[in-house]
Design brief:
812 residues, Rossmann fold, 3 domains, binds ligand 26V
Length: 812
């Protein structure tokens, strides 16, 4: 968009005055932010309208990405940047004595997701718009985001996250597009005059779904897509039935809060309500929009692609069947053909305890008509498969099993495409988790390795690196990430290496200042910044990181002259409130932090910083300042990981097991430019399969392991209330489910290799450069191109030339 600094300044002053009726000089930071945000949204609005209209005019096929979670991060700078106005706005605010960065910090960071799954959805939204692909997000407008985490005495405490308290400038409430969603009651089928069986309902709970739309701004391409988040309200015509405030609770609670558990499936009624609420409103709104195309129903799959992000929105399948059969009067076979051609599904976890299975009784009571349809899908599936595949495979893949509805099975049976999120993960789906389905439907399975948007994670989060890249290789990489590989040519250029080292040091100084400010811990920017930021889960093995810190601590205590490079271990992690073991790990990390940070014998050699309330905004500060990226899950457990890609793009060296996308990182950057340790996925399967692993034996026979584990229980760590014993028990007495002890020695060795390399700063920085230069394949733009071509069959719809270049072939 074209706009002069002068015009912007004028617009901004007017905007502020029209909102607050006094001059901007008297405004608070929040008010100034609100005015700026609304002004930027005004600038976006004509493109938003034009994009929508042009999709309809061209009858473009559209994607609808259904996700219970989105983690967009703050939007002021990214929207301004994608509009091409960052410099103009920044200069204009300077003239007014204001700072864009300061105003940007006033924005609430919407925590409408747990972790990787939600952040991926938002990276995809950014890429869809930037690739000019007609794409929409569909989710829930939770009134409370993921809990705000605080530490009290080293323990995690959860506080409510009221992100909507001071308005959300990006959203538009769209009362014209509300839908009605029905729950419970009785339902039966009656023949109507035309001879159709029609469902009749009584005593249902009717909930009004109100959409709030947020613009998803494409990168300098005048395209603006839509993220639609639904909020539950009482239908106006039924208001008089709700005589007391309490009576409205069953409705209001539906979109009140995000479930904070990303590790354990719990069959909670309210969660099922949320899922159906989002799905039903979303599908109704899509089919309503489709009518604008004036085409027969059988063409729906030519114009609509619905993506099911993990099983959480899998009820799309029976909901679409319901509407097509009950409301549009199609036959079962016609409806099924349309539904299954329209839907596609991504699996994001192999953790069995996270796979959704709803009790049949619950589903029947809450969603009687939907349950009837699921039962029919299941019956037809079983009838069809029995003669072809026999009893075992048929019953093991059925949707209804032992009193539950298996949502992964529903998703696979009702979708034309099933994908994993990294090659290893897809292989595991095909060979293990969904093996029987792979036998039945091999053509449905495909891999789509995750990606990240470089716009947020490089251009905006790391302006100094971006400037360096612009200076060295030109600006083409910004719209064509493949160009990053040109940077490889600079690996031997001393000047570039020096400048790259300065960029990193500068970022580390900024992070050090932030650490001082929020944690009161002084860290040396010349130390190695070693970072593990992700949800806390035993399989991600934050406790292995902890054991290594303890190991170093004990080494230094025993031998003060031991040659360790000073290290700052940085953590950020929320634990699910009900996940006791994860919370115990947090407590022990904090206690070990207190121990090492305050021990004069340790000095700068070791510091531990555990940030509170880890989220997108904090990640943007930490990642550009990281030297070592810890990706240490037990091989086979982490579906992909995406922070691993962000770290790499920002020049961190990866310390990793061969898990998830770490394997592909290795393939692109080369094993010699990262630190790999631990069992491979095949070895993990073998060790677990043959039952040979004996953690107690390892503890007793390995003196390094023994010393560290004993420190958990012998009083070395102060202020514990049994948390050290809990860790010890799980590792020794319960045979160490995630093979921490088995990988521990090779983990320590990898850390020693890190020290050795870091002493050679030039060599370290050369490897860092190669990581940046090899990170392009993890652009979400490429990932989205592959989804668009292989799964959704959608094409860019752009007025001019595409700014961002699609790339589909493997690179390098
Ligand atoms: C799971 C559950 C289970 C029960 C109900 C609530 C709930 C909410 C969220 C989840 C998400 C688990 C799946 C997930 O986040 N997977 C992560 O997806 C990333 C993006 O593909 C991937 O990079 C991570 O490796 C994977 O753990």
């Amino acid at each position: 968009m074209k706009l002069s600094v002068k015009e912007f300044v004028k617009d901004f002053k007017n905007q502020f005055q029209s909102m607050y009726a006094y001059p901007y000089e008297e405004g608070s930071t929040e008010q100034l932010y609100n005015a700026l945000g609304l002004l930027i949204k005004n600038y976006v609005s004509s493109n938003w309208k034009d994009t929508r209209e042009s999709y309809i005019k061209q009858s473009a096929k559209q994607v609808y990405y259904f996700s219970m979670e989105f983690l967009p991060g703050r939007q002021l700078k990214s929207n301004t940047y994608n509009l091409g106005l960052l410099e103009t706005v920044s200069k204009g605010l300077d003239q007014l004595g204001l700072s864009l960065d300061e105003l940007a910090e006033a924005e609430a960071d919407p925590a409408l997701g747990n972790g990787g799954l939600g952040r991926l959805a938002s990276c995809f939204m950014d890429s869809l718009a930037s690739m000019a692909i007609p794409g929409n997000g569909n989710g829930i407008r939770y009134q409370y985001g993921l809990f705000r985490q605080k530490f009290v005495d080293g323990y995690q405490v959860e506080l409510p996250e009221n992100w909507l308290r001071y308005r959300n400038v990006w959203e538009t409430r769209n009362d014209k597009s509300t839908c009605m969603v029905r729950f419970g009651g009785n339902v039966w089928l009656e023949e109507n005059e035309q001879g159709h069986l029609e469902p009749k309902y009584e005593n249902t709970l009717n909930v009004l779904a109100v959409p709030y739309d947020t613009p998803m701004v494409g990168y300098k391409n005048e395209r603006v897509n839509n993220l639609r988040l639904w909020s539950a309200e009482i239908p106006v015509e039924e208001e008089s039935n709700y005589l007391t405030i309490d009576a409205t609770d069953p409705i209001k609670e539906i979109t009140e809060a995000l479930y904070p558990d990303d590790s354990n499936y719990e069959g909670r009624l309210l969660r099922l309500k949320q899922e159906y609420f989002m799905v039903s409103a979303g599908v109704q709104s899509i089919l309503r929009h489709y009518r604008k195309y004036n085409m027969p129903r059988k063409n729906i799959p030519d114009k609509v692609a619905i993506h099911i992000n993990d099983t959480h929105p899998a009820l799309v399948i029976p909901e679409m069947m319901r509407i097509l059969i009950d409301e549009e009067h199609l036959s079962w076979d016609q409806a099924w053909e349309i539904t299954f051609k329209t839907c596609s599904y991504t699996n994001h976890t192999i953790l069995r305890e996270a796979l959704e299975k709803w009790p049949i009784d619950m589903m029947k009571e809450l969603l009687p008509r939907i349950y009837m349809i699921i039962e029919e899908i299941n019956n037809r599936y079983v009838e069809h498969m029995l003669p072809l595949y026999g009893e075992r495979i048929t019953w093991q893949t059925a949707i209804l099993q032992n009193g539950v509805v298996n949502m992964a099975h529903l998703a696979v049976i009702g979708s034309h495409s099933v994908n994993g999120v990294a090659q290893l993960h897809t292989d595991i789906l095909m060979n293990d988790v969904l093996k029987d389905f792979f036998e039945i439907y091999p053509e449905r399975f495909n891999n789509k390795t995750n990606g990240i948007t470089q716009r947020r994670w490089m251009h905006l989060a790391n302006p100094d690196l971006t400037q360096l890249l612009d200076d060295k290789i030109g600006k083409a990489w910004k719209s064509n990430p493949a160009e990053l590989k040109v940077f490889k040519g600079y690996e031997k250029d001393k000047q570039t290496i020096k400048e790259l080292a300065e960029v990193k040091l500068n970022n580390k100084k900024k992070l050090a200042a932030h650490i001082e400010k929020v944690k009161g811990i002084t860290v040396d920017p010349n130390a190695i910044f070693d970072v593990q930021i992700k949800r806390l889960h035993a399989y991600k093995r934050q406790h292995m990181n902890l054991l290594h810190i303890l190991h170093r601590y004990l080494e230094i205590k025993q031998n003060p002259s031991v040659d360790y490079v000073p290290r700052v271990f940085i953590f950020g992690a929320k634990a699910a409130p009900s996940y006791v073991y994860a919370k115990q790990i947090i407590k022990v990390i904090n206690a070990v932090g207190d121990l090492v940070n305050n021990d004069p014998d340790i000095g700068n050699k070791l510091k531990v910083v555990f940030f509170e309330n880890y989220g997108v905004s904090l990640a943007e500060k930490i990642i550009p300042a990281t030297d070592v990226s810890e990706q240490i899950s037990l091989a086979s457990m982490e579906a992909s990981g995406t922070s691993n890609m962000k770290f790499m793009a920002n020049g961190a060296l990866t310390l990793a097991t061969l898990d998830g996308a770490n394997i592909e990182i290795r393939d692109y950057v080369g094993e010699e430019n990262m630190f790999i340790f631990g069992l491979t996925s095949d070895e993990v399967y073998e060790v677990r399969g043959n039952g040979s692993y004996n953690a107690r034996e390892l503890y007793q026979s390995n003196s390094t392991v023994k010393r560290v584990l004993d420190a958990l229980i012998n009083g070395t760590i102060l202020n514990l209330e049994g948390e050290g014993d809990a860790l010890f028990d799980s590792l020794v007495n319960y045979n160490d489910e995630y093979l921490v002890l088995k990988d521990f020695e090779s983990y320590i060795q990898a850390h020693e290799a890190i020290d050795a390399l870091y002493k050679d700063q030039k060599e370290w920085t050369r490897k860092s450069l190669l990581n940046i230069a090899s990170s392009a394949p993890f652009s979400a733009d490429y990932t989205i191109s592959r989804y668009a071509e292989d799964i959704w069959k959608v094409k860019p719809c752009c007025p001019g030339k595409l700014k961002v270049q699609p790339r589909n072939e493997p690179m390098y």
